[in-house]
Design brief:
By secondary structure, this protein is α/β, with parallel strands linked by helices. The chain has a single domain, classed as Purple Acid Phosphatase, chain A, domain 2 (4-Layer Sandwich). Helices cover about 30% and strands about 20% of the residues. The protein is built from 8 helices and 11 strands. The strands form 2 sheets. A 6-stranded mixed sheet has the order 3-4-5-9-6-7. A 5-stranded mixed sheet has the order 2-1-10-11-8. Helix 3 packs across helix 4. The two termini are about 30 Å apart.
Length: about 260
């Protein structure tokens, strides 16, 4: 089975569509999402609608930007640019054409998104921020922070997002794997912590969209990091036309 693990779309509809085309080209059968569909970008609800249409409800978790949309008091922990993106998404809810999303928010659909999922039949877990306390929205930036997660990992393969920077961390002393082969076998005797990077706002100095391809073949699992070009000019123009901070457009070209 081929599975795409996507994260941190952040209202970048052009990037999301490019990634989904890549998924179709690879004949990917399932898509799992680690949250932060909205925020930063100009098309939060178009992205939300598209994600809802392709992902089963039990394969989608909540990100901190969805949390802040429903809990504005949590915005105090956001940067000014991040606050602008969430507030823009909230204003978009007031538009007549977005009445269906208004109803979803009123019905608490965002609130019902889980903070963590254990897909025990696949030996995989999903979270947005970290496994020690998902509700704190903490970041896992480096090897020491990844190592601190090891005892909390519920499955053999554990995905998380939030930092927009891809990495693979393996238990058993190997640690962060700096040079991944094109198709990396995940040792079933180890635990893995994997960040698939960001679809809509990469921050690893590579401007291309990023996601994970997980292949499950019997007892074997293989990981591939996929990079996808998309029309950054179109996304940047949409951000500026929406009245969002220009920095949110410029950073896309630098992958930061």
């Amino acid at each position: 089975m081929k599975i795409a693990v996507i994260s941190d779309i952040h209202g970048n509809l052009t990037a999301l569509k490019a990634v989904l085309k890549d998924c179709r080209d690879l004949a990917i059968e399932k898509i799992w999402c680690l949250g932060d569909i909205i925020g930063y970008g100009a098309n939060p609800w178009e992205c939300w609608s598209l994600v809802q249409s392709i992902i089963e409800p039990n394969h989608l978790i909540k990100g901190n930007h969805e949390d802040a949309l429903e809990n504005p008091e949590h915005l105090k922990d956001f940067t000014k640019n991040a606050q602008a993106g969430v507030n823009y998404a909230r204003r978009q809810l007031e538009l007549p054409e977005n009445v269906s999303y208004q109803e979803q928010v009123k019905q608490g659909i965002l609130s019902t998104l889980p903070l963590m999922l254990r897909l025990t039949e696949s030996g995989v877990a999903l979270v947005h921020g970290d496994y020690l306390n998902p509700a704190d929205w903490s970041y896992v930036h480096d090897e020491a922070e990844a190592e601190a997660q090891m005892n909390a990992l519920p499955e053999s393969v554990n995905f998380l997002g939030h930092t927009h920077v891809p990495f693979v961390f393996q238990s058993g002393g190997r640690g962060l794997i700096d040079r991944l082969p094109d198709r990396f076998e995940l040792n079933p005797d180890c635990k893995f912590l994997i960040n698939p990077g960001s679809v809509g706002q990469p921050r690893d100095s590579d401007c291309r969209s990023c996601y994970a391809l997980l292949e499950i073949e019997g007892n074997q699992k293989f990981f591939t990091l996929r990079r996808v070009f998309y029309d950054i000019d179109a996304t940047a123009t949409a951000i500026r036309q929406a009245g969002l901070p220009n920095y949110l457009a410029e950073r896309l070209y630098r992958g930061e």
